[in-house]
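tl;dr need the bound structure. longer version: we got a ligand (adenosine-5'-diphosphate) that a collaborator sent over and nobodys looked at where it sits. i said id run it. heres the input, straight from their email, havent touched it
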Amino acid sequence: MKSENMSNGLTILVVDDEESIREGSERILARMGYHVYKASQGSEGLEILNDHPVSIVLLDLKMPGMDGMEVLGHIQKLNPEILVIIITGYATLETAIEAMKQGAYDFIPKPFEPDQLRIVINRARERIRLAGETERLAQERQRNLADLSTEKSRIRTIVESLPNGVLVTNVQGQVALMNPAFQWLTGIEARDVTGESIETCIQDRGLCQMIQDISTGNALSLPATYEFTTVGEKYLLASGRPVLGDDGECLGAVVNLVDITAMKVLDRLKSEFVAKVSHELRSPLSTIHEQLALVLKDMVEKESSRDQYLISRAKEKTLGLISLIGDLLDLSRIEAGNVCLECKPVKLDELLKSIVDFMTTRASAKNQRLDLVLPDALFPTISADPRALESIFGNLITNAINYTPDGGAIEVRLYLSPDDVQPTHIRIDIRDNGFGIEARDLDNIFKRFYRVKNEKTRFITGTGLGLPIVKGLLDELKGDIQVQSEPARGSTFSVFLPLAVSE
Ligand code: ADP
């Protein structure tokens, strides 16, 4: 006969002295898919339990020899997880209740219908399933807790042994975590600072301000960065981000601190080396250039045009080298922080006019228009170093001329931020309708020696140092530069100069 197969692989033992009950139960249970053992006496049943794994026992209370209650006691001792279902006649109902008190799981009155047995057995099976599930969940929970605690201690060990400083604050600017490297780098004595406000443990006001700005959502850009030096002559770079909650709310800040002293020293050594070599090369190159100019002058009547061409190429190349050396020296000075800006009141309109006048000859040689557009309104005199401004605008206008084809147009326009009631900056745009710059190059053009190489720019000589010099000088002047460009349509470089006095 086909089994109903609901057994979940469970095994049942029927202990009853009545053969009809044993056989009848076996038939019903086997049909449900259970494996069934039978015993006509208590002692025989206990032997089976000793030798085989059994989940449910159907146990008659009234049997000759060892009675059901005694068998129940032994089963409880042997394995309390076995579910015992008492089979009882009406006359012994009270004993059945007693048996339940002693730990039997359920009872079924005799005689019973197949459905009654099925219901009781299904209930027991469900109980076994739930007990198994509970056990599994308990084990899983135990495992998760164990995993969690190892994970936690693992993360703690990693954070504690990181060479970089790590600081986490809450939204009130109190320390939630500060690793030993952070304390060591910033010179905080080794102790637990959890819960202390950052102002009490961090000396550098700028760093505290940055952390405060991040926590309150006032950081201008993310990750916010801040470079500073410590008493022990260490150069440190802090970069921080907000810690965000599920709804995007700020819960605090996390700051990473790196010791960049070695990088700084290397950078300084490199700048010093470049400055030294450039300085040594400048005078002999200038002499060669002057002598080539003399040779070229003498050659005019006598030599062949090919020789003249070669000498003039050599003269051009030395001029290129002299200009490269000049740029390298300027950049080294800016990077070493050795530019002595002599800020004085500057009438920007007059200064721009003289630069544009000077450059007009160059633009005219390429049939280009070079216009200066000044605002109608009066604008204030700014305080800046005029030589730095000449270098900035000289470089930008030279680039506009170089990277615009013959016949193009260049415009230098001065704005006094018309939208602002109290403007903080003056803006000067240098706009051309030249070759333009691809988006992928825009991020790189302010890097040292970066030059865009394409069909249009290939033959234009340059050093790739002009824009880094412009950027460096503007940083010194507390100004800024932005660029917008479209290939084949042109570029606009916007220079921002502060109206406040630059010290
Ligand atoms: P250089 O002009 O000596 O190559 P710069 O640092 O001044 O070096 O400029 C870097 C690069 O940026 C240039 O090589 C050029 O490709 C690009 N560039 C600068 N200004 C312009 C401009 N106005 N139009 C198009 N490209 C420009």
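gonna send this back to them w/ a short note. The chain has 14 helices and 17 strands.
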